[in-house]
Amino acid sequence: MRVLAKVLIFPLVIVLSLAGLAVRVAIKLGSVVAGVCTLIFGILAVLVLINKMWLQLGILALIYAAMMVVLFAATEVQVWIDVATDLLKEV
Keywords assigned by UniProt (predicted)? Predict the structure, then answer.
């Protein structure tokens, strides 16, 4: 019975492992993009403050906050995928 459970769970473990790999790649790519965007947003924020364009500064801050939320959400998904994969490997 235990062997049958392992055989049935194996495809799910493979799918979760591949999903975890995809999320890890997305997180690494997102971190690089976040670093570059932080630099660009910092430069644009200084220019916006000099020219007193407050609406544009608010839009930049919203874009930056949304980018960080997506990055943190992807990290949380990665943690849950790792936990699920570890639990399934123990069966």
Answer: Membrane, Transmembrane, Transmembrane helix
